[in-house]
Each structure stands twice: as structure tokens, then as C-alpha cells.
Input
Amino acid sequence: MRCSSAATRPARPLPTPLMLRYGKGDFNCLHQDLYGKVAFPFQVVFFLSQPQRDYSGGEFLLVENPPRAQSMGRALLPNQGDALVITTRHRPATGKRGVHKVSVRHGVSPVTGGERWTMGIIFHDAQ
Output
């Protein structure tokens, strides 16, 4: 498939499904899936492989970066057939000064054996 510049690429107002395969040593750095000027605040991740049977390692990582505070991470190992609905950018939180936004990034820790498959659906209006 040929790549095109953002200026010549048509808009994609439909959800983008992604099939992701991770083999031994593969990982995904912490990130946010933000494409285009308009992004739906949630995305869905479907887990198609069973941890410990199909692969080892490969934890799904969620890291929150609250303002003026230390980051907090979670490592999840959902089962085959599970789905997570996660934020694409921020989540609301309540603190001493009221309600505020907490930035959230996600990623995948290194797979240490086998193959890990997931499907993600991102809702956006990418240009």
C-alpha cells in the first residue's frame, strides 16, 4: 500500500479497526490514539489471545498522569474474548480543587513468548 500525505488523503469519518499481532520481543510504547480534529473520547480494545496459553508477557498498560502529581500505572492481563473501553485522551477525576482532567496513555509491555493478538477500534474524523 502506498502512503500519501495528509493533504492528499481523503477524510476518514468512520471507525478505524486495527488488528495487532505481537510476537516475542514486540511491545507498544505508551501513547494516545488521536487522529484528526475530532476524536470520540473512547476506544475499544478486544483481546483475541489467552495469556499464559498463547503468549507470555504482553500486559496491557494504562498510565494516568494527573496534574501536579506522580504518574500511576496499571498492568492488565485480560482473558481471550474480553474487551476494554478506554479513554482516548483524558478521564475526569475529583481532587482537592474540584474536578479536573487526568491524561491517560496506554501501551503493551514486551511479549516474552508466543503470539498476542488484539483488535482495536478507534472512532475519529481523521484528515
About this structure: The CA atoms of residues 40 and 123 lie 5 Å apart. The two ends are 18 Å apart (CA to CA).
